[in-house]
Amino acid sequence: MVSPVSSIEPNASLITPGEGEWLADVIVVGGGNAALCAAICAAETGASVAVLERSPKTYRGGNSRHVRNFRCRHTGPLGVLSDDYELDEFYDDLLRVTKGNTDEALAKLVIEQSSECYEWMLEQGVLFQPSLSGTLSLSRTNAFFLGGGKALVNAYYRRCEDMGVAIHYNATAVGFHIEAGDADGVLIDFDGEQRYVRGKAIVIASGGYESNKEWLAEAWGEAAKNFLIRGTPYNRGEVLKCLLTAGADSIGDPTQCHAVAIDGRAPEYDGGIVTRLDCVPFSVVLNSDGQRFYDEGEDVWPKRYAIWGRLVAAQANQVGYSIIDSQSSDLFMPSVFPAVKADTLPELFEQLGLPVNRALQEVGEFNDACQQGEFHSNELDGLSTSGLTPEKTNWARPIDQPPFYGYALRPGVTFTYLGINVDNSARVSFGEKASKNIWAAGEIVAGNILGEGYLAGFGMTIGTVFGRIAGQQAGRYANS
Amino acid sequence: MQTVDVDVSHEEAVRQLGICNSCRYCEGYCGAFQALTRYREFDEPTVSHLANLCHNCRGCYYACQYTEPHEFAINIPSLLANVRAKNWEQHVKPQWLSRSMQRQVWPYVVLTVVFTLLFSLAIGVPWLSSQPFYASMSHNLMVLIFTPLFLIPIASLAWGVRSYWRSVGAESLTLQNLKDALASAATLRQLSGGQGQGCNYEDEDRFSSWRRWGHQATMYGFLLCFASTSTATLFHYLFGWEAPYSFFSLPKLFGVSGGILLSVGTAGLFYLKTKADVALGSEQRTRSEYVFITLLFLVSTTGLLLYAFSGTALASAWLIIHLAVVATFFVAIPYSKMAHGFFRLAALCRESQLN
User: Fold this and answer.
1) Overall number of domains in chain B
2) For the residues B157-177, what does the mean pLDDT come to?
3) Whole-model pTM?
4) Which domains does chain A show, CATH number per domain?
């Protein structure tokens, strides 16, 4: 059972600037993809490196445990990637999802370097596999990791061990001593015992704060209690808060998080990929009052699942109910929890706890508003309702073929946008002045490039590119 | 860590495979995962089919984000190992013998002791004698003892595999099915990890091909030993050439090379097993697996020693021990871990039909 992780109270009296025990030339705070890329690259410069992973070994890797691929620029086929995916097209895709809310120079830097990352990852022992069944649309743009993100993380940890990087599990950075943007040392909780340690350079790759519901509640209010957190319970954001308190420049919208609609029965934390539900476009979605609230068929699901996270978050009790019939039950990837199933709609609504009469009326009106036409599950088929508010503009077929199926939907938070500002060498800035010895990478800097929206596999690209830059820079600094 | 119970329930198999089917990150590791994507529902024959395709390479376990302490508690290698062994126990009759030899150590000990006593009587006490092989025991007596000892277990195994084959709803076997299955088995393709990086076995998530090599040495060593016995039988009955044969004869060349390979392979597999996590296999059957590997090791080493000591005073002693472990092994063929090879071949044939 994954429980929420509680914050650790720092014992500030232990912070003794200029003293503290020596840990390593380069201290990497975090243990996910970006942290490990940084640790490997820092170690490659000859610097001694320590990685601080706050989770136990079994949960190492943060949200990287759950990822599945890496978006990668390439000219011509590259490994498992087919055809071309050039900078311009990649950047256009990014502009589309972020609605232009990005830093062009940093974004193009990441896209440019993603190509050489592929080879580098192979050298570190990462294995790729062809696109998974059901994801052929990504075979040109995204390189899938054999075994997924945890296998990638395992490969990086092995590489770190082989290079002599010291890995500390259950090691949480709880405080820093930063003066005028330059770090002196880190207060670390090693498995319950706090120690102030020092190094020459610090790389921050500690992720976002999406599993800190109290922090989410600052923007979302009480609704945040009903959010499900798709990834690690360890992304509490204390390091982010420490840096912001110390005067690091922030980036990204503090009131937003990226949330998708997922199976309402998912565990509160760490449900990952299997909790996704792809049935919405073929369904009608009711709120707990038995009413529809948005066009389920607006676009193909990969382009709409993020919108649905917010839509469901705005409903009473942050829940929605996706209803399909037997015509549609095989049109999407199987979900991890079996659907609630019944032979009649009243029985189904009863089981789902919906107001039966109201829901029946709503589905009845929907069915009556459906038009004749050709249904095509894998394209926008234009099969729309007529005269409804809101209309369903594609895949609108009457829900009338028993048995009927229902899934509860809830918002599943993937990541937060608020982060810290970095320049093209991954250096953290304090009052617009670059720090001498603090670099950052991964989710904590993603807001520099992803102002809003999300592009599948791009978080890994940002993490890998910035992780490598941060590690190289920190290593070089430590050696100088 | 909690392991899946020895008699894993079908509900538990459906639960775990359902989670895998919604994830599919492991598709590239092996044929079992590629087969899994074919199904939306997992009935018992389907679970059995997947279980017998699985080679327990454990890549999927170490890559899985849902292993304990995660509440989904995924442990596919252990789940499928238990289902697989349950299949062997169910299909190979008599079931009580299957169950006890798959799970217990004592049947192997009892059989070895009983056969040692029997052969001691047949060959004659005192043991120490430098008589040539057939002088200490007549060829006819050997054939009389070993023919049923070999044929009855083989018949039982064949009947068990046939029962399994029918239970998974397989169609009639074609030559192509057999070719596909043998090609996969010959190269142990399913232990390649998908890209030749190997298994996650003796050192947690570090990939290695040692287990694949250990198994290859064991399998080919065994086949060479089998070839040795077969050619010797042909020599005897077809050409009337009687043992002992010279070193440069086929039976000796096959036997010595096979014996060395089998000894090295089984010793290697035994060692690797001591390093591997028992919770990723069928934990309650582990001891019996160790005994079976030891038995195979003894079959080959006592055979080599018998050859090495031929003409000396110890020859009869080695002969008695060698014959006793070989006889025990024959009895164990359908009822021990040895069954896996035949069920796996059947599953690979079935998979060839489904692809």
Assistant:
1) 1
2) 95
3) 0.93
4) 12-256+417-479 (3.50.50.60), 259-412 (3.90.700.10)
